[in-house]
Design brief:
Blueprint lengths: L6 E6 L5 H12 L2 E4 H7 L3 E5 L4 E4 L1 H12 L4 E4 L13 E6 L2 H10 L4 H12 L2 H9 L5 E5 L3 H22 L2
Parallel strand pairs: 1-5, 1-6, 2-5, 6-7
Antiparallel strand pairs: 3-4
InterPro entries: Adenyl_kinase_AK6, P-loop_NTPase
Catalytic activity: ATP + H2O = ADP + phosphate + H(+); AMP + ATP = 2 ADP
Protein name: Adenylate kinase isoenzyme 6 homolog
């Protein structure tokens, strides 16, 4: 897919800083932030709500149809907690944010997550579920694992993406 600007996916366990990092990246390099969770809720791209996990049941087909149009021209920083549902061709870079379990636990408690949701997400982070899924779903050279424990980590991650974008532009200029 020929694009004048890349699409970047920022993924990770809930609480790893995806939205904050995505907003920082988008602002720093002039791309548009796309919060998939917000789109799912606002456009009702779900099949109901799971009370025990405090989450919506995603309608993947509707979501993919919606995002296809949004992402086709590039220039997007997409933020979502899972990655395997998206076609590989959509993304030029996949960032998997990781956080220490103590930081992550505190963030989830602060958000008011129920115990089951916290336990499930903590287990996912410890078992590196999102990282492994990203490696299974995308070419190894586009998947990058980044620490996301502090504001300094986030700023460093933004700087790395700026450098990556310069290289991408140099390699993809017509």
């Amino acid at each position: 897919m020929e694009r004048s600007l890349p699409n970047i996916l920022v993924t990770g366990t809930p609480g790893t800083g995806k939205t904050t990092t995505s907003e920082m990246i988008a602002e720093a390099i002039g791309l548009e932030h796309v919060n998939v969770g917000d789109i799912v809720k606002s456009k009702q791209l779900h099949e109901g709500y799971l009370e025990e996990f405090d989450t919506h049941v995603l309608d993947e087909d509707k979501l993919l149809d919606e995002l296809e149009e949004i992402l086709k021209d590039g220039g997007k920083v997409v933020d979502f907690h899972t990655c395997e549902i998206f076609p590989e061709r959509w993304f030029d870079l996949v960032l998997v944010l990781r956080a220490d379990t103590s930081s992550l636990y505190d963030r989830m408690v602060k958000r008011g997550y129920n115990k089951r949701k916290i336990d499930e997400n903590m287990e996912c982070e410890i078992m590196q579920v999102v990282l492994e899924t990203a490696h299974e779903s995308y070419a190894p050279e586009i998947v990058v694992e980044l620490p996301s424990n502090t504001v300094d980590d986030m700023e460093s991650n933004v700087d790395r993406v700026k450098q990556w974008l310069e290289a991408w532009k140099a390699n993809n200029s017509k």
